[in-house]
Amino acid sequence: MTESPLAGPADENGWLTLPDVALRLDVTISKVHQMIRDRELLAVRRDGVRRIPVDLVANDTVRKHLPGVLNLLTDAGYDDEEAMRWLYEVDDTLPGTPAKALGGDLAREVKRRAQALGF
Fold it and tell me: By its UniProt entry, which InterPro entries does this protein fall under (predicted)?
């Protein structure tokens, strides 16, 4: 059986390390860890380092609907890797992926779809 590729941005430049996120959000690294624990951000290990997709951090804030979507995915039983896979699965009815759609007018639709996974 072939292992599926890891979810998330394919481009190495599509990822931020936790210190990079702390700088971008102008918070301490401890605050970034707290945000991950509180499901405000999603981080996964890539090459032994915890990373966060650039798409999930909008300039100096977290995407508005991301914490709600992450909580809904968690409630539906998704672990971090599964949540990342769901966020980066190409969807022809969205502009690319749910992660990309979180940055536009379809963010509420992404949240609605995540909510539907729990039923």
Answer: Rv2175c_C (IPR041098), Rv2175c_wHTH (IPR048576)
Nearest to 116 by CA among 74, 85, 72, 79: 72
Could you tell me the two tokens for 86? 């769901």
Rounded average pLDDT over 8-33 = 92
CB-CB contact of 70 with 113 (8 Å): no
Contact 17, 47 (CB under 8 A): no
Determine, yes or no, domain membership for 72.
yes
Alpha-carbon gap, residue 80 to 12, rounded angstroms: 19
Distance from the first to the final alpha carbon of the chain: 30
* Mean per-residue pLDDT over the chain, rounded: 89
Residue 6 lies inside a defined structural domain of this protein: no
72: containing domain: 13-116
Query: How many residues are listed for the chain in this entry?
Result: 119
73 or 4, which is more confident: 73
pTM of the predicted protein model? 0.87
